[in-house]
Design goal:
The structure holds 2 protein chains of 2 kinds. By secondary structure, chain A is mostly helical. Chain A is built from 20 helices and no strands. Helices cover 82% and strands 0% of the residues of chain A. In chain A, α2 packs across α6 and α15 packs antiparallel against α19. The longest helix of chain A has 48 residues. The radius of gyration of chain A is 27 Å and the shape is flat. The N and C termini of chain A lie far apart (72 Å). By secondary structure, chain B is an alpha/beta fold. Chain B has 2 domains: 220 residues, Rossmann fold (3-Layer(aba) Sandwich), CATH 3.40.50.300; 61 residues, Alpha-Beta Plaits, CATH 3.30.70. Helices cover 38% and strands 27% of the residues of chain B. Chain B has 10 helices and 14 strands. Chain B has a 6-stranded mixed β-sheet with strand order 6-7-8-3-9-10, sandwiched between helices. In chain B, a hairpin with a 2-residue loop joins β9 and β10. In chain B, α3 packs across α4 and α8 crosses α10. The radius of gyration of chain B is 24 Å and the shape is elongated. Chain B starts with a strand and ends with a helix. The chains are: A mainly alpha, B alpha/beta. At the A-B interface, α1, α5 and α11 of A face α2 and α3 of B.
Chain lengths: 477, 311
């Protein structure tokens, strides 16, 4: 194992040496490391002074953690160029073939590049942060607590790993450095948005949520590394040299997989769709288990958090809430908006949203949204219980009739997202990443059109025309 | 050794290599000739386990290129079309890096790199950055890299294309030495004179398919026909009653020369000389008409293109 790791270090060492001999990489990094802490420090001071003129009552100390996070982020964005050109740069310079022809395993090459890609920006970030902390100590400002410092350290490391692992995936899949640089915005912009959320948590002082954010970023980073290795194929690094989108090939590949050689609609429904459903079956099973857990979590959260609110509420307030709930099934005055088409479109949109959220996060965000949707059922059950209403008959009348169609539709739709995530992070021999994604999109479309949409349509009709009547009769008792 | 069976590579709709069968033993040199884009580089990349064959199989140094890619890469030295040098490294660093990749000991790395740099005349420039090297020096260094781990199989793409005649000779001598020390060598080249002087076997590839394969002599015979000989006389010669032996065709005749095509030279040439002697012909010279690989190559390519136009 040591000799195998030695080769990782060898690849990284060569790359690192090469990098430090290039003043075009070094100079901006050094300038940024030295100048940015001073700039940030001055900016924070000016902002606080300016806002305090208008009675904002801001304290400069509160800016320190935020400044550390920003100072840590900027060197990463600049040195991202090193990771972005890790493979595609070598390809353009013609140096990739000798190294690919050498007895190095894919993971050794990949981790060698990843190591240097992460180490350089991180070293720059840590140096910059250290310089800023020296500035902080010289201004009699309070240092953040050790816990916040640890979180900031982990956040910076997680951001670097996330961005570099994404950059290396781009570098492997791109056909030119120019294309890789253009695609870099797909890394920088989402991470910048993520940091806005993290900044809010820092100012808000919510450590628990910040830990969740750190864990989320680390999970996505690990999945990205896994995707990179899974789709690292020497063949595709050497083979693809033209930067053009072959729409005909894209459409043909998608259609071939969508139709699956079916001779009739019945054949497609039975054989092709059946085969796609069998592939997704393990994911459906997992999501059924997740559904159970989510329902319990929703129930538990409401029981623990809302019970105190209800206990403190006046009897008049409780009466008002109960009346509101009793009026809910009467859709007569809302027929214009809450109709079967409305319910159908709403639910279809939710499944599509879960798909898109999952597609860009290897299923993680999609499954979280699914958990929230399912958790609401448990939450509502608990709420009825807390309000002293009998939840079981209400559920049997108000949820089960359309739920037996709607919940499986949601479950199957989300299961495809989990399946897609799992396939993307799994090595697919002999297939390019594009082919894999097109096959998965074809599978999703098959299941969405063949199973999810019909189930949601039936659910919408029942929910609009049968459920209200049943619910009213139960509520009246 | 190298052995392939119906080796095929298809990129989407493009058939790059079509059912190529090769067999090169240890101590042999195979030259692959063909136009740019004919499939030479794709074939070499499959033999280096960089590309997976779509169909067929290949074994290099006893290893299957698909199942034992790592072992294949360990046993092969490759000179790629683009030399792939790291311009900010020095030659000594570069060779040392690849020596480490091939798991050579520090002593072996030092010995091999010193020897190769000395042999290729790069010793003085060993500590200069590769970016400062001339084109020829870079090619020599790339070749030194391919030979660094003393591989059993060498795959060389245009090994002397950028070199001056002196360096090219040096490289050819080294290739010949490697051949005599039982290395298996494949050369892709456009330099037909070089191929003629080095190769034991030649394969002409066109649009991914091997059109012709064999030794140079076999190729000449198959493509250009039986060898032709010219007899020159020191004085005018009367050919009345002179009959050529069986299996010898007369191509042309003048008062002072005779041109013939001989099916079996070993049997027929002494008979021709005897017949001429019997007729008291004053033979000044008897020589084979020079026939080059270039003639073979151009004829094969012209025929292939002609067939294509007909289709």
């Amino acid at each position: 194992m040591f000799s195998k790791l030695r080769l990782v270090w060898l690849v990284a060492g060569r790359e690192l040496k090469d990098q430090f001999r290039d003043w075009r990489v070094l100079a901006p990094m050094i300038i940024l490391i030295i100048c940015f802490p001073f700039l940030m420090n001055e900016f924070a001071k000016q902002t606080v002074d300016f806002l305090n003129q208008y009675d904002a009552n801001l304290i400069l100390d509160r800016f320190v953690p935020f400044s550390i996070m920003i100072i840590g982020f900027f060197p990463i964005t600049i040195s991202l160029v090193v990771a972005l050109e890790a493979f595609v740069g070598e390809k353009e310079r013609g140096t990739i073939e000798p190294i690919l022809s050498a007895p190095l395993d894919n993971w050794q090459l990949y981790f060698g590049k990843l190591l240097v890609g992460v180490a350089t920006p991180l070293a720059a970030s840590y140096l910059s942060i250290a310089l800023y902390l020296i500035l902080v100590t010289r201004q009699d400002l309070n240092m953040p607590s050790p816990m916040v410092m640890l979180q900031l350290f982990l956040l910076t490391t997680a951001h670097a790993t996330l961005m570099v692992s994404a950059a290396i995936v781009i570098s492997v899949q791109s056909t030119s450095v120019k294309a890789a640089n253009l695609l870099a915005s797909f890394i920088v912009i989402p991470v910048a948005l993520l940091m806005q959320g993290e900044a809010v948590m820092l100012f808000w002082g919510n450590e628990q949520v910040l830990w969740l954010a750190i864990s989320g970023v680390i999970i996505i980073s690990l999945l990205l590394i896994r995707v990179g290795i899974a789709h690292f194929q020497r063949e595709y690094l050497l083979g693809r040299e033209i930067d053009s989108i072959n729409l005909t090939w894209i459409w043909r590949t998608f259609w071939k997989n969508f139709i699956g050689g079916a001779r009739s609609f019945g054949d497609w429904y039975g054989r092709v769709l059946g085969s796609a459903m069998r592939r997704v079956a393990p994911a459906i099973f997992i999501l059924a288990l997740i559904a159970g857990v989510s329902t319990w979590m929703g129930y538990d959260w409401i029981m623990n958090n809302i019970s105190q609110v209800i206990a403190k509420a006046s009897p008049e307030r409780i009466e008002k809430i109960e009346a509101g709930i009793r009026q809910m099934p009467d859709l007569s005055n809302l027929q214009g908006s809450i109709s079967a088409p409305f319910l159908f479109l709403n639910n279809t949109r939710a499944v599509a949203f879960i798909f898109f959220a999952g597609l860009f996060s290897f299923g993680v965000l999609g499954i979280l949204l699914y958990m929230v949707n399912i958790g609401v059922i448990g939450g509502l059950y608990a709420l009825f219980e807390l309000l002293g209403m009998r939840p079981l008959p209400i559920f049997l009348a108000g949820v089960v009739p359309h739920g037996i169609f709607e919940i499986p539709a949601l479950m199957i739709g989300s299961a495809v997202v989990l399946y897609i995530g799992a396939v993307i992070v799994t090595p697919q021999t002999g297939k390019s990443m594009g082919e894999v994604i097109l096959e998965l999109l074809a599978d999703w479309t098959k299941i969405f059109l063949g199973v999810v949409v019909p189930l949601l349509a039936i659910a919408a009709i029942i929910e609009a025309y049968i459920t209200p009547g049943l619910l009213l009769s139960v509520m009246a008792k | 050794m190298i052995e392939t069976h119906e080796l095929t590579k298809q990129f989407h709709d493009f058939l790059a290599v079509d059912e190529v069968n090769l067999s090169v033993d240890a101590g042999q040199i195979l030259a692959i000739l063909g136009q740019n884009g004919a499939g030479k580089t794709t074939t070499v990349r499959m033999l280096t386990a960089l590309l997976n064959p779509t169909r067929g199989w290949a074994r290099v140094a006893g290893y299957d290129v698909v199942k034992n890619g790592h072992d294949v890469r360990s046993s092969v030295g490759v000179l790629t079309e683009q030399h792939g040098l790291y311009m900010r490294m020095t030659a000594i660093e570069y060779l040392d890096f690849f020596g480490q990749v091939y798991s050579l000991s520090a002593v072996a790395r030092k010995m091999r790199s010193d020897h190769l740099l000395e042999y290729f005349g790069l010793a003085e420039a060993a500590h200069r950055r590769i970016g400062e090297y001339s084109k020829g020096m870079r090619q020599k260094l790339a070749l030194a890299r391919a030979m660094m781990h003393d591989p059993g199989v060498l795959l060389l793409d245009e090994p002397t294309s950028a070199m001056d005649p002196e360096s090219a000779r040096l490289v050819r001598d080294e290739i010949a030495r490697l051949k005599s020390s039982q290395r298996t060598i494949v050369i892709c080249s456009h330099n037909l004179t070089e191929v003629e002087s080095l190769a034991d076997q030649i394969a002409i590839i066109y649009r991914g398919k091997i059109l012709l394969q064999g030794t140079l002599e076999e190729m000449k015979r198959n493509v250009l026909g039986a060898p032709e000989y010219e007899v020159k006389f020191s004085a005018d010669w009367d050919a009345t009653g002179f009959e050529l032996p069986q299996g010898v065709d007369l191509l042309s005749r003048t008062a002072t020369s005779l041109k013939v095509r001989v099916e079996r030279p070993q049997e027929s040439n002494p008979q021709i000389l005897q017949a001429l002697s019997a007729k008291s012909a004053s033979v000044m010279a008897f020589q084979e008409e020079p026939r080059t690989l270039e003639q073979v190559y151009l004829k094969v390519m012209a025929e292939a293109k002609g067939r294509e136009n007909v289709q």
